[in-house]
Specification:
Elements: E1 3-5, E2 8-10, H1 12-28, H2 34-43, H3 49-63, H4 66-81, H5 85-103
Antiparallel strand pairs: 1-2
Helix pairs in contact: 3-5, 4-5
């Protein structure tokens, strides 16, 4: 839900996301004048948005679990300092597996 911030009403990040999605849908359906819709659509290219949201959600899920975040940092540091390439690859594979697992967590859990 929204919150009152410094005397102004803020709809929060979820509200902005919905607003942005509605704007994108409106533009995608050919909002009003076709030329105007194409010009705005070209200016605000939304192609990278799904990848950004996936990356953002992964980082958010990791940040919510301090133990997981510390473990990931430890794995990364150990992989950097490791002399054996095979052991380093194993550490990075574990790091990658844990990041994918964190990305798969549903919102609110």
């Amino acid at each position: 839900m929204g919150r009152l911030v410094a005397g102004r009403y803020s709809i929060g990040w979820l509200g902005w996301l919905w607003l942005w999605l509605w704007l994108w849908l409106w533009l995608w359906l050919g909002a009003g004048d076709g030329e105007w819709g194409r010009a705005i659509g070209d200016a605000f290219n939304v192609t990278p948005v799904p990848a950004f949201m996936h990356l953002w959600w992964t980082q958010y899920a990791i940040a919510r679990d301090p133990e997981l975040e510390a473990h990931l940092r430890d794995l990364e540091a150990r992989a950097v300092k490791c002399e054996d390439p095979r052991e380093s690859a194993v550490l990075l594979a574990e790091y990658s597996r844990l990041r994918r697992q964190a990305a798969a967590v549903e919102p609110g859990r």
